[in-house]
Amino acid sequence: MTTVTRAVAEKPVVIFSKSSCCMSHTIKTLIYSFGINPTVYELDEYTNGKQLEQELKALGCKPSVPVVFIGQDLIGGPNEIMQLHLKGKLATLLGR
Fold first, then answer.
1. Taking a C-beta distance cutoff of 8 angstroms, is the pair 69, 80 a contact?
2. Residue 66 near residue 16, CB atoms below 8 Å
3. What is the pLDDT of residues 44-88, one digit of tens each?
């Protein structure tokens, strides 16, 4: 089991982020606007942040942050999240 898999296990919404990344801030703000309190891993503040970043890249996440998991499923990065939001599907995903 990878570190990423353990990090998202049994958590409804997880965001892998960097505290200095403007897109990470934007995605976190969007998720918070739905009344969701996600688990946020700021990779630049964790000792194993580089390892988590490499695992996210191995999962196909490019760029590696921000990345959102909902219900242990990899939803994607900012492009995927914004597309879902603009299509009105993000609220449905967050509500499940």
1. no
2. yes
3. 999 999 999 999 999 888 888 999 999 999 999 999 999 999 999
- Residues in contact with 22: Cβ distance below 8 Å, sequence separation at least 6, in sequence order: none
Structure tokens at 54: 């490499």
The type of residue at 93 is L
pTM: 0.93
CA–CA distance, 77 with 96 (Å, rounded to integer)? 19
Q: Hey, how many other C-beta atoms are within 10 angstroms of the C-beta on 38?
A: 20
Question: What is the CB neighbour count within 10 angstroms for residue 94?
Answer: 20
On whether the CB atoms of residues 24 and 18 are closer than 8 A, the answer is yes
